Amino acid sequence: MANMTDLHLDILNVIVVMIATSSDGARDLARASAVFKNFKTQARKPHILKMVNFQRLTSTTDTLRKHRDRNGLLCMCARAGNQAAESILGKAILLRDSWFFGMIYNDNQQAYYGCIASSQVLHHHNLVRTFILSAPSKEIVVMRQYLVKYVIAHAGYNAARECGLIAAICTLCNTEAARHRATRVGSNQNQATNSSFIDILALLEPPPEAMFRDTVVILFDKLFPSARD
Questions:
Q1: Backbone torsions φ then ψ of 114, nearest 5 degrees
Q2: Range with the largest mean pLDDT of 7-11, 77-81, 137-141
Q3: C-alpha to C-alpha distance for 68 and 97, rounded to whole angstroms
Q4: Is the pLDDT of residue 206 over 70?
Q5: Which of 22, 35, 134, 206 is 20 to 30 A distant from 141 in Cα terms?
Q6: What would the 3-class secondary structure string for the chain be?
Q7: Contact between residue 134 and residue 84 where contact means Cβ atoms under 8 Å apart
Q8: What domain of life (predicted)?
Q9: How far is Cα of residue 62 from the mean position of the Cα atoms in its chain?
């Protein structure tokens, strides 16, 4: 592994920040870290991990499988508080990825016995909460059934229904789905006559999606208080 020993630390830090925040930051940083030793050292610092750009990382099942590494970039960034990384892992939890569930469980056990710091432990409620807060609307719609299944599995159907969380998730997803349909209809006037009234209404006056999302988060926090800690 090469070492760029001639670079001043401040200059190296600027370069690493530029790479980490580029449009393909996660992949570019991983490549640079694999070549230069001091890049790797700098890239593992918390303030760098927190700003790594995961915009081009598609959170498909195959992609998530490639990142099953506790000391890999995705997991390290999530532990550093990188919201995008947390959201991706939140989706992995919703998809019931057994490896990530196992990693979280093992880390909790290690922290309990004092083998690792509690700050190094991820919590699946927090990851799912971040997914709800920051995932693109289209992903929220696609993950509707997984969100509902998650809250039922971890809180029970009666508790999730009585607090209104299931209804709130459905309202958020239905509203977003209608808005996306309306957008497609608006781009093709020939289809307008075949659209439903609610779709046209959503196009003319887009609903405040943030309000519905905030409602889901508030109810999620009520059902899972530890997610706010």
A1: 75, 15
A2: 77-81
A3: 10
A4: no
A5: 22
A6: CECCCCCCHHHHHHHHHHHHCCCCHHHHHHHHHHHEHHHHHHHCCHHHHCCCCCCCCCCCHHHHHHCCCCCCHHHHHHHCCCHHHHHHHHHHHHCCCHHHHHHHHHHHHHHHCCCCCHHHCCCHHHHHHHHHHHCCHHHHHHCHHHHHHHHHHHHCHHHHHHCCHHHHHHHHHHHHHHHHHHHHHHCCHHHHHHCCHHHHHHHHCCCCHHHHHHHHHHHHHHHCHHHHC
A7: yes
A8: Eukaryota
A9: 16
- According to the model, what pLDDT value does residue 229 have? 60
pTM of structure: 0.83
In single-letter form, the type of residue at position 87 comes to: S
How many residues belong to the chain? 229
Burial class, 4, CB count within 10 angstroms (exposed 0-12 / middle 13-18 / buried 19+): middle
The sign one gets for the Cα dihedral 150, 153, 159, 161 is: positive
First to last CA, the chain: 40
Mean pLDDT of 67-74: 93
pLDDT score recorded for residue 176 = 82
229: its two tokens? 């800690």
Distance of alpha carbon 140 from alpha carbon 91, whole angstroms: 10
Alpha-carbon gap, residue 224 to 209, rounded angstroms: 22
The answer to whether the Cα torsion of 52, 54, 55, 56 is positive or negative is: positive
